[in-house]
Amino acid sequence: MSRLSVLDDKVAARATKAFGSMPAFYLLTLYGLLPLALPSAQDTLLYWSNCVQLISLPLLMVGQNVLGRAAEQRAAETHDAVLDELALLRALVAQQAEQPPAPATANPTTPKGSAMPDRPVDPHLDQAAQAAALTETHNGPTEPGEQRLLAAQFGAPNSAGVYGAPAPEGNPA
Q1: N or C: which end of the chain has fewer CB within 10 A?
Q2: Range of the domain at 130
Q3: What is the pLDDT of residues 41-51, one digit of tens each?
Q4: pLDDT (tens digit, 9 = 90+) per residue, 57-109?
Q5: How far apart are the first and last CA of the chain?
Q6: Domain count of the fold of the chain
């Protein structure tokens, strides 16, 4: 590009940005209202308004083209950068696919020596037997003297060994 062409592009871009600003809007609005304040100068104001339009419209079109080219250039650069990143990600995924899987590690919350099997609860166990079963699976009572604390808060256990449960119908606890 020649230096004149570069200068033309800069002038057109700056003019487009200037005409697209709020101060330019306010000035042009005031200029459009001048015929109301000066009715005798209406012909002269109309002439200058037409001159401004004849000069500014082609200038704004050129400015829009210049700004559009710049936006297209940025979009192309962004597109190329995204494609480069995609190629890197594909290479990383391919590299990971070639590696053997990592060995499984033990669950850090599982107590040592416990396989934590699925353990169905026998409904015929009393409270003490349930507490013993929980202790064997390392999920024992959380408080020492838990039975005494439960009895103090909820009263004595019912015939099924459950604290705070309503009495079965027809069979008071």
Answers
A1: N
A2: 123-155
A3: 989 998 999 99
A4: 988 898 899 989 989 999 999 999 999 999 999 999 988 888 877 666 555 54
A5: 100
A6: 2
